[in-house]
Amino acid sequence: MPAAAAARVAPWVEELCKLGHTVSVFTSSSVLDHDGSVVKSYFKVPDNKASLGKRFLQEILLGLDLGIRILISKKSTSLCFITSPPFFMACICAFFAKFSNIPYVFDVRDRYPRVLSDLGVIKASSFLFKLLDKLESWVYQNALQVTTVTHGLVQELKLRFPHLNIFLVRNGFDEQVFSEHLSNSVKSSAFTVVYHGRLGRFYETEDYIEIMNNVYEMDPSIRFHVVGELPREMQSNLPKNLVVSPAMPLDKLSELLATCHLGICFLRELPAMENAFPAKVYDYIGAGLPVLAAPSGELTRILNDLKLGETFAKVDPSSIAKAIVRIKETPSVWSTMCAEVRKTRSIFGRRKIANTYFTNQLAIQLNES
Fold it and tell me: What is the arrangement of strands in the sheet containing 145-148, beginning at the earlier edge strand?
């Protein structure tokens, strides 16, 4: 599937198999191509566009299905990896793993219910938030280990749960798909700025539209390319310099990204986003693209420290548009950015990150247990 959680499962499985383990993947019915190691649920992955009530029901059904499969396989299972979100699905799987006496590692990519509070879906003072907070605490406290994807989230969880075994396992990019030869790809004839993925609740669609329109007024030759489904408000008012492609398999995506010039990722100014590092940014880096990002947070700090692009303290469409035009008009600046990305990109290889975790932190914990 063209989704961040699914994309990083294959490299993890392959690294575990190299270490001599037998791995089964329990997942949704949405998976198309798979081998015998993949066990498909009767239910699809929860729909991000569905209402909260419908999504909750979808998560419950998928969680119960996968949880029962965990229970059935308990005699042949030594360890269970559970990834969240979907939060409720993951919590149900954790309950079944605990009930089955199977140690589990809980992998956290977005912290719920905090994200729901930041988005204004529920109030932090409400009974529902407190109930979900207790559920989150139970899941972490019963885990063999907790892994998460950014340094900020590690520190946040350690502050809240100081006695837990919490480790950083970044998303990274797949080295086999985003190979080094992509850096030699022929670039598009038009200077192209790319965004891939959904423009969901963590992004302000209006900001992207304004950036594109501002750039068009200054330099209509610059093109924007969005890979993924557009929000409705954007579909009815497409900027003149925008090209849209549907979501595509990772191998096709990598080839397309490599023909572009810049990758962009502008997040909403929410507390939860301060510790975010979206998986799409690793894909840009894997394809050799400099990245433009905002607002200030862990994402912009890493990009600045490693000189992987240009960042902005706030999502200011006017300033961002001017920067895009300036970079396009100054080829030496763009070339220098690309050289820095090529020099540093290998540290974010997903297989390298996974192997380090599996052979060090996880292996030590299992030996001690």
Answer: 80-84, 104-108, 145-148, 166-168
8 Å CB contact between 209 and 195: no
CATH of the domain spanning 180-348, picked from 3.40.50.1010, 3.30.70.120, 1.10.260.40, 3.40.50.2000: 3.40.50.2000
Residue 70 tokens, joined: 């965990």
Residue 12 has, within 13 A of its CA and on its CB side, a CA count of 21
Strand-pair category, 104-108 with 145-148: parallel
Alpha-carbon distance of 359 to 15, in angstroms, equals: 10
**215 within 8 A of 324, measured Cβ to Cβ:** yes
Residue 137 tokens read as 């605490």
For domain 4-172+349-368, which architecture applies? Answer: 3-Layer(aba) Sandwich (3.40)
Contact present, 176 and 259 (Cβ < 8 Å): no
SS3 153: helix
Does 93 or 30 have the greater pLDDT score? Answer: 93
Please name which of 186, 178, 348, 189 lies closest in space to residue 252, comparing C-alpha atoms: 178
Residue 369's pLDDT is 61
Task: Tell me the CA distances in angstroms from 252 to 106, 145, 256, 259, 287, one per residue in order.
Answer: 31, 35, 6, 11, 12
**pLDDT one-digit tens code per residue, 186-212:** 999 999 999 998 887 888 999 999 999
Q: How far apart, in whole angstroms, are the C-alpha atoms of residue 127 and residue 49?
A: 26
Is the whole-model pTM more than 0.70? yes
Instruction: Pull the structure tokens for residue 291.
Output: 């990245």
pLDDT digits (tens, 9 = 90+) for 146-185: 999 999 999 999 999 999 999 999 999 999 999 988 888 8
φ, ψ for residue 367 (rounded to 5)?
-65, -40
Give the DSSP H/E element, type plus range, for residue 291: strand 291-294
Q: Give residue limits of the domains in the chain.
A: 4-172+349-368, 180-348
